[in-house]
Amino acid sequence: MEALKQRILRDGRAVNEQILIVDSFLNHQVDVELMRLVGEAFAERFAQAKPNRIVTIEASGIAPAVMTAQCLRLPMVILKKSASRVLSDDIVQTEVFSFTKNAPYQLTLKRQFIENGDRVLLIDDFLANGEAALGACRLIEQAGATVAGIGAVICKAFQPGLQKLRDQGYDVDALAKIRKMSEGTIEFDEA
Ligand code: 5GP
Known about the structure:
The protein has helices spanning about 1-10, 30-45, 60-70, 130-140, 160-165, and strands at about 15, 20, 55, 75-80, 90-95, 105-110, 120-125, 145-155, 170-180, 185-190. By secondary structure, the protein is of the alpha/beta class.
C-alpha cells in the first residue's frame, strides 16, 4: 500500500535493526484517514476469504481493525492482554511472549464473543516473530472458529513471523513488508 509506505518513510523511525517506531500515525497518535485507507486495503485483500468477524489484539490493532470492520460491515472483537481475575468457564486464555515488553502476558477472550463456526479475520498493527498472531489464532480456534485470514499493517519480513504463520497454513498478508532496516534507513520488500 503506497500511501502507508510513504508515511513510514516520512514519519517512521527505525531505532535499530529490530524496532520501528510509528507512534505519530499508527499506535499512539492515529491518522484516521490513513487508517480508513488501511481498512479499505484489508477489506479488498481479504473479502474473498468471506470472514464474518474481525478480531484484533489490544491496543495497537484496534484502529486498523475498526476501519476494516467498518469497510466489511462486520462485528469486531478485541482480545485482551490482561489476565482475568475472575477465571470462569466462559473465558479462554493463552500465554503469549511480548516482542516489545520482552515478557509473557495472558491473551484473553470471553468465549461468547466468538461463535462456533465463525470465520475470523485477524488484524494487528505489526507482525514480527508471530507470537501475538499465533496466540490469537489459538484462542480463535479454541472458541470453535476458523482463522479466515491474518492481516498486519506492517510486517518485518526479516523476522520469522510471516513464514511461521504461512507454514502453519494461514493466509497472511501485510500492507507494508519491511525487508531490512537500520537506524535511519527502511527498505521495503516489493513482493
Ligand atoms: P510478534 O508477536 O509478531 O513478535 O509481535 C507483534 C506485536 O509486537 C505487535 O502487536 C506489536 O504491538 C508489537 N511489535 C512488534 N514489532 C514492533 C515494532 O517494531 N514496533 C512497534 N511499535 N511494535 C512492534
